[in-house]
C-alpha cells in the first residue's frame, strides 16, 4: 500500500491519477491550518482527537505555553484590582458605598461564563474569544477585590501567599504524579453537587453567624474541592491522561484554571481571613 502511494506521488499528473486520488483519504490539516482564522474549517472535538496526535510534543508545548501565558495576565489583573481594593482607602470606600457595581459585575461574570462555556464556536473564534475572556476576567477581578476589601490587609496578603503556594504545588504534582484524576470526574461532580446543595441549605436555613464553625467547615471542603478541580483541569491540559483537551480550547482551559485559583483564594479568605470589624488595618 505504501509502495503504491509513493508510485502515484512520483508519476506525472493525469486523469488516471486524479481518479485514483479521489479514493485516497485526505491528509489531516496542521494545527496552524485548523486555527488560521474565521475562514478555516471548524472541526469537532472528536475529529480533532483523531487527526491531531497528542504524542507530538511541540503541539502540546505550544498549547500549554499559550494557556499559562494568558493565565499569568489574568492573575496579574486580579492581583492589581485586589491590591487597589485592599490598600487604597478611597477605592475601598467607594466600592463599599456602591454595592450595585458588585451585582452588575456578577451579572457580567455569569453571562460571559455561560457564553464561553456553551458557545464552542465563539470561544474558538479570534479575537472574540479573547475579548470575552478579558471582560470575564475584569468582572471576576472586581468581585474578588470587593470581597477582599472586607478583610484585614494582613489576612489578604497571607491568603494570597497560601493560594500561590498551594496552586504551584498542585500544578507541579499534576505534571509529575502518575495518578489520573481525570478518570474520577463523576466523583468530582457528585462532590460539587453536594457542596452546592449544602451551601443553599446553610445560607437559607442555618445562617453561619449562629454556628461559626460551619463557615470554616464549608470553606475547608470548598478549598479541597477546587484544589482537586485545579489538578483535574491541569491534567486535562497536559493531554497524557485518559481524558485530554483539544488544542483549540486554550480559552476554555484558561477559563477553568483561572476560576479554580480564584475560588481557592476565596475559600482561604473564609478560613484564615479576619474581618475588618474584628481587627484594625
What does this structure look like?
With 281 residues, the protein is mainly α. It starts with a helix and ends in a 9-residue tail after the last helix. The model is unreliable at 1-25 and 34-55 (pLDDT under 50). It is built from 13 helices and no strands.
* Ends distance: 76 Å
Please, what is the average pLDDT? 76
Our estimate of the beta-strand percent is under 5%
Rg for CA atoms: 24 Å
Number of helices: 13
**Chain oligomer state:** single chain
Enumerate the spans where pLDDT stays under 50 for 5 or more consecutive residues: 1-25, 34-55
Q: What is the number of domains?
A: 1
Biggest beta sheet summary: none
Structural class: mainly alpha
Query: Helical content, roughly?
Result: over 70%
Principal-axes shape call: globular
Compose a concise summary of this entry:
By secondary structure, this protein is mostly helical. It has helices at residues 2-10, 15-21, 31-34, 45-51, 57-87, 89-97, 100-118, 120-123, 128-149, 153-176, 185-204, 212-238, 250-272.
Amino acid at each position: 500500500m505504501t509502495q503504491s502511494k509513493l508510485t502515484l506521488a512520483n508519476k506525472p499528473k493525469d486523469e488516471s491519477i486524479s481518479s485514483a486520488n479521489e479514493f485516497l483519504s485526505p491528509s489531516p490539516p496542521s494545527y496552524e491550518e485548523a486555527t488560521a482564522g474565521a475562514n478555516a474549517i471548524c472541526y469537532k472535538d472528536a475529529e480533532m482527537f483523531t487527526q491531531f496526535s497528542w504524542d507530538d510534543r511541540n503541539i502540546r508545548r505550544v498549547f500549554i505555553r499559550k494557556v499559562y501565558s494568558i493565565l499569568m495576565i489574568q492573575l496579574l489583573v486580579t492581583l492589581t484590582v485586589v491590591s487597589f481594593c485592599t490598600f487604597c482607602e478611597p477605592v475601598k470606600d467607594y466600592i463599599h458605598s456602591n454595592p450595585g457595581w458588585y451585582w452588575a459585575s456578577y451579572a457580567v461574570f455569569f453571562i460571559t461564563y455561560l457564553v464561553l462555556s456553551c458557545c464552542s464556536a465563539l470561544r474558538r473564534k479570534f479575537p472574540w474569544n479573547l475579548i470575552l475572556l478579558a471582560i470575564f476576567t475584569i468582572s471576576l477581578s472586581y468581585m474578588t477585590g470587593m470581597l477582599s476589601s472586607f478583610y484585614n490587609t494582613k489576612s489578604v496578603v497571607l491568603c494570597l501567599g497560601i493560594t500561590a503556594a498551594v496552586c504551584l504545588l498542585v500544578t507541579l504534582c499534576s505534571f509529575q504524579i502518575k495518578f489520573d484524576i481525570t478518570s474520577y470526574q463523576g466523583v468530582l461532580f457528585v462532590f460539587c453537587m453536594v457542596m452546592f446543595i449544602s451551601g443553599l441549605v446553610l445560607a437559607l436555613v442555618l445562617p453561619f453567624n449562629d454556628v461559626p464553625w460551619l463557615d470554616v467547615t464549608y470553606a475547608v471542603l470548598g478549598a479541597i474541592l477546587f484544589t482537586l478541580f485545579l489538578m483535574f483541569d491541569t491534567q486535562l491540559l497536559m493531554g497524557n491522561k485518559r481524558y485530554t483537551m483539544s488544542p483549540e480550547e486554550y480559552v476554555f482551559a484558561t477559563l477553568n484554571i483561572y476560576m479554580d485559583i480564584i475560588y481557592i483564594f476565596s475559600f482561604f479568605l473564609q478560613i484564615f481571613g479576619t474581618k475588618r470589624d474584628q481587627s484594625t488595618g
